[in-house]
């Protein structure tokens, strides 16, 4: 058997051909860095432009009356509190439903479910559910919660339930990844001192996975907070002159309020729209900040 | 001293799906001894160890046939409670795996879930006694609230031994407990095994034949899923009956 031929040995690493080759490689390196930095700058400039326009148009509209008032036909007296409270109530319903359901489903699928075709099928379905366009969840909410179950239209309750359908698969996926990241040796350790499987999971695995689960939950909630389409369908496009008192009252939410004001003919509402966007963005940033804080604060390093 | 058999296994076969990992192993493990399982990688010694406290139950597709009795009770029988079994047959793993909690909590967890302590004073006593037996008390007594994961590797492994001791097991299974440790930490664990052998039946899986020779009174040699030879450690190392055992301990393979 003949040996495959190796390339001829380089006579010297200092030859001009080698130097030229190296130069070419360095140039490719510089080109990539420039293109990468350009991509970052371009995307940031869009965000900066948006922020600049919003702040220029809206900052003047943010005052105490705006932050504490509700919707009004008069742009000067219209405020954001009604929609803000509607968002809080809706998010509360969403969290109360999707968090326990999502976490329990994630724990079951990751730690207890048998490995078979049915479970594989459920896993694929959950991943697909997370990708379903939100307007379809709105139609489902209208058909099931309002028409079949007879829950009050335009309420934070129905809005929250609809958004919970959307958020649950996100929490399941984040939860499963967080649970998977806990080393199996910890569960083994608990089992080996005689913990039952449920004890091993709830005493050891779940607490270690919780920061990851919370991060995923907050990101899912932030997405739900900005959601408008499904809420349009279940009738949260309403003029609510007073903040909702409870989850069954007629309510609207922040993005819906922005949508409603942006549709007004009265030019005075332009400032209100921008101001409402600033409030919504501040809310979203606060949630994402909380997610980052939780991740850094409770992350366990192995 | 008359020997009492803690564990007696008869015709044990273990399958992972279609693949057979253990073929027809019968062995008696005495309570007064340290029993070592030696053999080349993949010979089934760790698999057999994990069968003894049913840690293999967590592996999908794993099937065990034959009979394994702990104090005369079939551990795969319908009236054996696996949670109780694992409290009676403790386990120490290859890589130290303390819970990412305080040193105290690491030891107290087992007694707490089994309800072995009445109140804080009793629990404190169990924790102290377990850590003393594991030879770790003097090093950690002033920092019981520190994280168990902040200890050195050798200390972590002794913490894991203390955690196993805390539920008063009858048998302690050790799966290559020193393979992640330096020689000094290894020597401390070996001393500890020697101290513990009167109280607990100890079964240790090891890659190091020297370690088997140092700590055990009985040695079982495994090869390709079967137990080739089992006898007093001295006889296995000086006068093995089987050619395969002799070839392995003289370093011809493995």
TrEMBL record, chain A:
<dbReference type="InterPro" id="IPR000515">
    <property type="entry name" value="MetI-like"/>
</dbReference>
<dbReference type="InterPro" id="IPR005672">
    <property type="entry name" value="Phosphate_PstA"/>
</dbReference>
<keyword id="KW-1133">Transmembrane helix</keyword>
<comment type="similarity">
    <text>Belongs to the binding-protein-dependent transport system permease family. CysTW subfamily.</text>
</comment>
<feature type="transmembrane region" description="Helical">
    <location>
        <begin position="129"/>
        <end position="150"/>
    </location>
</feature>
<feature type="transmembrane region" description="Helical">
    <location>
        <begin position="34"/>
        <end position="55"/>
    </location>
</feature>
<feature type="transmembrane region" description="Helical">
    <location>
        <begin position="156"/>
        <end position="179"/>
    </location>
</feature>
<feature type="transmembrane region" description="Helical">
    <location>
        <begin position="88"/>
        <end position="109"/>
    </location>
</feature>
<dbReference type="InterPro" id="IPR024573">
    <property type="entry name" value="DUF3333"/>
</dbReference>
<dbReference type="InterPro" id="IPR035906">
    <property type="entry name" value="MetI-like_sf"/>
</dbReference>
<keyword id="KW-0813">Transport</keyword>
<keyword id="KW-0812">Transmembrane</keyword>
<feature type="transmembrane region" description="Helical">
    <location>
        <begin position="200"/>
        <end position="222"/>
    </location>
</feature>
<keyword id="KW-1003">Cell membrane</keyword>
<dbReference type="Pfam" id="PF11812">
    <property type="entry name" value="DUF3333"/>
</dbReference>
<protein>
    <recommendedName>
        <fullName>Phosphate transport system permease protein PstA</fullName>
    </recommendedName>
</protein>
<dbReference type="Pfam" id="PF00528">
    <property type="entry name" value="BPD_transp_1"/>
</dbReference>
<keyword id="KW-0472">Membrane</keyword>
<feature type="domain" description="ABC transmembrane type-1">
    <location>
        <begin position="84"/>
        <end position="291"/>
    </location>
</feature>
<feature type="transmembrane region" description="Helical">
    <location>
        <begin position="275"/>
        <end position="294"/>
    </location>
</feature>
TrEMBL record, chain B:
<dbReference type="InterPro" id="IPR017871">
    <property type="entry name" value="ABC_transporter-like_CS"/>
</dbReference>
<feature type="domain" description="ABC transporter">
    <location>
        <begin position="7"/>
        <end position="249"/>
    </location>
</feature>
<dbReference type="Pfam" id="PF00005">
    <property type="entry name" value="ABC_tran"/>
</dbReference>
<keyword id="KW-0547">Nucleotide-binding</keyword>
<protein>
    <submittedName>
        <fullName>Phosphate ABC transporter ATP-binding protein PstB</fullName>
    </submittedName>
</protein>
<dbReference type="InterPro" id="IPR005670">
    <property type="entry name" value="PstB-like"/>
</dbReference>
<keyword id="KW-0067">ATP-binding</keyword>
<dbReference type="InterPro" id="IPR027417">
    <property type="entry name" value="P-loop_NTPase"/>
</dbReference>
<dbReference type="InterPro" id="IPR003439">
    <property type="entry name" value="ABC_transporter-like_ATP-bd"/>
</dbReference>
<dbReference type="GO" id="GO:0005524">
    <property type="term" value="F:ATP binding"/>
</dbReference>
<keyword id="KW-0813">Transport</keyword>
<keyword id="KW-0592">Phosphate transport</keyword>
<dbReference type="InterPro" id="IPR003593">
    <property type="entry name" value="AAA+_ATPase"/>
</dbReference>
């Amino acid at each position: 058997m003949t040996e495959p031929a190796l390339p001829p040995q380089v006579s010297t690493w200092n030859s001009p051909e080698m130097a030229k080759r190296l130069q070419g490689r360095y140039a490719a390196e510089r080109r990539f860095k420039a293109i990468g930095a350009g991509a970052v700058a371009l995307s940031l400039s869009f965000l900066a432009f948006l922020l600049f326009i919003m702040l220029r148009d809206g900052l003047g509209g943010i005052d105490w009356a705006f932050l504490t008032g509700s919707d009004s036909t008069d742009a000067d007296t219209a405020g954001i509190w009604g929609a803000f409270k509607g968002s809080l109530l809706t998010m509360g319903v969403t969290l109360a439903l999707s968090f326990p359901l999502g976490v329990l489903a994630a724990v079951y699928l990751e730690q207890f479910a048998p490995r078979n075709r049915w479970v594989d099928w459920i896993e694929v379905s959950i991943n697909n559910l997370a990708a379903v366009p939100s307007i379809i969840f709105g139609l489902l909410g209208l058909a099931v919660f309002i028409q079949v179950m007879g829950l009050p239209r335009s309420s934070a309750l129905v809005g929250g339930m609809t958004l919970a359908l959307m958020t649950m698969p996100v929490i399941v996926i984040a939860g499963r990844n967080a649970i998977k990241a806990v080393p199996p040796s910890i569960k083994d350790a608990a089992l080996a001192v005689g913990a039952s499987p449920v004890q091993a999971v709830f005493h050891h695995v779940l607490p270690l996975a919780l920061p990851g689960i919370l991060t995923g939950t907050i990101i899912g909630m932030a997405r739900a907070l900005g959601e408008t389409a499904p809420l349009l369908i279940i009738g949260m496009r309403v003029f609510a002159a007073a903040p909702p008192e409870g989850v069954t009252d007629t309510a609207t939410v922040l993005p819906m309020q922005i949508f409603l004001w942006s549709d007004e003919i009265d030019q005075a509402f332009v400032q209100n729209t921008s101001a409402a966007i600033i409030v919504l963005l501040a809310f979203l940033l606060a949630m994402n900040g909380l997610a980052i804080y939780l991740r850094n604060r409770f992350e366990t390093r192995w | 001293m008359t020997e009492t058999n803690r564990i007696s296994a008869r015709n044990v076969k273990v399958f992972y799906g279609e693949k057979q990992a253990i073929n027809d192993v019968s062995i008696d493990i005495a309570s007064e001894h340290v029993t070592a399982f030696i053999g080349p990688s993949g010979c089934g010694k760790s698999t057999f160890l994990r069968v003894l406290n049913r840690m293999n139950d967590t592996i999908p597709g794993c099937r065990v046939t034959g009979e394994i009795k702990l104090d005369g009770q079939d551990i795969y029988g319908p009236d054996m409670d696996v949670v109780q079994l694992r409290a009676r047959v403790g386990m120490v793993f290859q890589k130290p795996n303390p819970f990412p909690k305080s040193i105290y909590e690491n030891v107290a967890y087992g007694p707490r879930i089994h309800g072995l302590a009445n109140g804080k004073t009793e629990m404190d006593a169990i924790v102290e006694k377990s850590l003393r037996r594991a030879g770790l008390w003097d090093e950690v007594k002033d920092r019981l609230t520190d994280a168990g994961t902040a200890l050195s590797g050798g200390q972590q492994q002794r913490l894991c031994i203390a955690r196993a001791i805390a539920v008063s097991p009858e048998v302690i299974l050790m799966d290559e407990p020193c393979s992640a440790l330096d020689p000094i930490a290894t020597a401390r664990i070996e001393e500890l095994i020697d101290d513990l052998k009167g109280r607990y039946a100890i079964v240790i899986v090891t890659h190091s034949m020297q370690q088997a020779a140092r700590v055990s009174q009985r040695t079982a040699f495994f090869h390709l899923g079967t137990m080739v030879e089992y006898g007093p450690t001295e006889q296995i190392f000086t006068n093995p009956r089987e050619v395969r055992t002799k070839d392995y301990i003289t370093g011809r393979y493995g």
